[in-house]
Amino acid sequence: MSLWLTRLTPDLRRGDVLNDLNDAHLMHRRVMSLFPDRLSDTPRSDVGALYRTEPVRDAVQVLVQSHVQPEIGRLPEGYAETGVLHLKSYLDTLEGGMRVRYRIAANPSKQLAVPSAGGGRVGQRVALHGEAAEEWWRLRATTAGLRLESGLVTPRHPLVSRLRARAGLRFHLAQFDGEAEIHDVSALRRAMWEGIGRGKSYGCGLLSILPIRQPTSEPADHGRLPT
């Protein structure tokens, strides 16, 4: 199981960086530019690309996970500071019973089985908020091999595109942080490998795991590459 984690810290003074950060489709294209051209009709799945954009102090970082090593030289010169790590040995350290910190930015949503009071149609996908979003994550965390011990849900700005051709692109986004115990390490590795939920092409579904090796009073640094 070969897995790579790339950290990009884009230069926020650049116009192309700001365009990418403000448009989910442009950021998707930028992430995919790190990988070879002429893939199949499902290029994101071919390379296993997942990513998450998040603020870090006075900067923004983009974490990109992939099944193949990215080609950092394909970025425009000066676009971002970068760091790349091969995660195979890291995944091998995960084991049942281990306590971990987790982070995932995901698209908690459901398809309506019956019309809603607000006029929602049967089959329409709607965003989940509050306790419904928490329950959505609890069920998926259990499937992903985690037994949740604590959690915090933070609403994030929706992922949208300003391109006319992508006018309908919109994903509700929520970030889930907390602590958990691994109860099924194979399921956890699979969830980390495949991602969770919808919107994986646009910054949803990347599950980050950090073993707890320090007192729980210390905050987890989810931005650093695992060692």
What is the topology?
Blueprint: E1 4-10, H1 15-21, H2 24-32, H3 43-47, E2 50-56, E3 59-66, E4 80-86, H4 88-93, E5 99-106, E6 109-111, E7 125-127, H5 130-143, E8 146-148, E9 152-160, E10 170-182, H6 185-194, E11 207-211
Antiparallel strand pairs: 1-3, 1-4, 2-3, 5-10, 5-11, 6-7, 8-10, 9-10
Q: CATH homologous superfamily of the largest domain? A: Crispr-associated protein, domain 2
Distance between the termini: 17 Å
**Tally of DSSP β-strands:** 11
CATH architecture of the largest domain: 2-Layer Sandwich
Kindly provide the name of the CATH class of the largest domain. Alpha Beta
The amount of beta strand, in percent, is: 25-35%
Number of helices: 6
What sequence of helices (H) and strands (E) makes up the elements?
A: EHHHEEEHEEEHEEEHE
Main β sheet profile = 5 strands, antiparallel
Q: In terms of per-residue confidence, which ranges show pLDDT below 50 for 5 or more consecutive residues? A: 216-223
Global Rg: 18 Å
* Helicity, as a percent range: 10-25%
Instruction: Give the mean pLDDT.
Output: 88
Number of domains: 2
Shape: globular
CATH fold node name of the largest domain: Alpha-Beta Plaits
Explain what the structure shows.
The protein has helices at residues 15-21, 24-32, 43-47, 88-93, 130-143, 185-194, and strands at residues 4-10, 50-56, 59-66, 80-86, 99-106, 109-111, 125-127, 146-148, 152-160, 170-182, 207-211. The protein is of the alpha+beta class. It has 2 domains: 4-90, Alpha-Beta Plaits (2-Layer Sandwich), CATH 3.30.70; 96-211, 2-Layer Sandwich (Alpha-Beta Plaits). The longest helix is centred in the middle third of the chain and has 14 residues, at 130-143. The protein is globular and about 45 Å long.
